[in-house]
């Protein structure tokens, strides 16, 4: 059963992450298909959690002992947010609640209840692996967004000076570059957010309280804040054009700083 549990753990986490990504994308840019997919994945997560928790109740009573309470708390959050979604359609509350639910679910799935459990090390290893994969994908998306921003600035410069050369003709339109950069950041921000949640859970188990003093942690949150501000300026304040492109380049500088910290011997991340 341990192998089956491990597969179920990975599957639930993957579905939950996909649900949060689609819900977040719908919040930033209304999309009916994305909204439906987010709800579909969230319902699937609730069904799998219900099945797993029911097995815990009947096979390992009391099921709410120790870390099992985290599973119930996550299940309860998903249940309540689904009700809110159905009755009130408060999407921001649904997203925030399920982000918290994801954190508690990851805590239950990846933090072993006892030191003797044979799943402890494999699951913690999987946790840091998923954390790293999500973070890398987020940084890749941010990097591509920066490329789009740089191309936007180049295209805008050539257009203003009416330099109709081969470079300008081969560039995508300014509107396309700006939209593509925005969508890449829209996906990258929640990916990094989820990666940080998993990373903090892993660090709490391996490094205990000392990880809060790690400069890499501050650097990662700085990256998240920088790109979060990008989305805020784009969606709420209506920024566009050069100002948003320059902010994208500035935000990418936080990734460079974070990378330098990781490789300068200042962080425990160098041993990962």
From TrEMBL:
Q: Name one GO molecular function term.
A: heme binding
Quote the InterPro entries the UniProt record gives.
Cyt_c_assembly, YpjD/HemX
Transmembrane portions of the chain:
6-25, 37-58, 70-88, 93-112, 132-159, 180-203, 215-232, 244-262
Enumerate the spans annotated as Cytochrome c assembly protein domain.
68-264
Give the record's keywords alphabetically.
Membrane, Transmembrane, Transmembrane helix
According to its UniProt entry, the protein's GO biological process terms are: cytochrome complex assembly
PANTHER family in alphabetical order: INNER MEMBRANE PROTEIN YPJD
Q: What is this protein called?
A: HemX protein
The protein's organism comes out as Melghirimyces thermohalophilus
């Amino acid at each position: 059963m341990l192998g089956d549990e491990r597969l179920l753990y990975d599957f639930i986490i993957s579905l939950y992450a996909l649900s949060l990504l689609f819900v977040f994308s719908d919040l930033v840019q209304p999309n009916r298909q994305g909204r439906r997919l987010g709800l579909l994945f969230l319902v699937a997560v609730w069904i799998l959690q219900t099945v797993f928790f029911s097995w815990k109740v009947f096979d390992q009573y009391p099921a709410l002992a120790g870390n099992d309470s985290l599973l119930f708390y996550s299940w309860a959050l998903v249940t309540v947010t689904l009700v809110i979604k159905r009755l009130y359609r408060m999407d921001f509350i649904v997203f925030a609640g399920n982000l918290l639910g994801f954190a508690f679910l990851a805590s239950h799935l990846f933090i072993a209840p006892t030191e003797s459990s044979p799943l402890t090390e494999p699951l913690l290893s999987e946790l840091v692996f998923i954390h790293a994969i999500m973070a890398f994908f987020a940084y890749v998306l941010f990097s591509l967004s920066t490329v789009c921003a740089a191309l936007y600035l180049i295209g805008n410069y050539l257009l203003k000076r009416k330099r109709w050369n081969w470079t300008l003709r081969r560039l995508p339109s300014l509107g396309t570059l700006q939209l593509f950069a925005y969508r890449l950041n829209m996906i990258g921000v929640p990916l990094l957010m989820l990666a940080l949640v998993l990373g903090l859970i892993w660090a709490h188990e391996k490094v205990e309280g000392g990880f809060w003093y790690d400069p890499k942690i501050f650097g990662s949150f700085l990256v998240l804040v920088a790109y979060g501000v990008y989305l805020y300026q784009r969606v709420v304040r209506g920024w566009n054009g050069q100002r948003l492109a320059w902010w994208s380049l500035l935000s990418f500088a936080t990734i460079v700083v974070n990378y330098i910290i990781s490789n300068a011997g200042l962080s425990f991340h160098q041993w990962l």
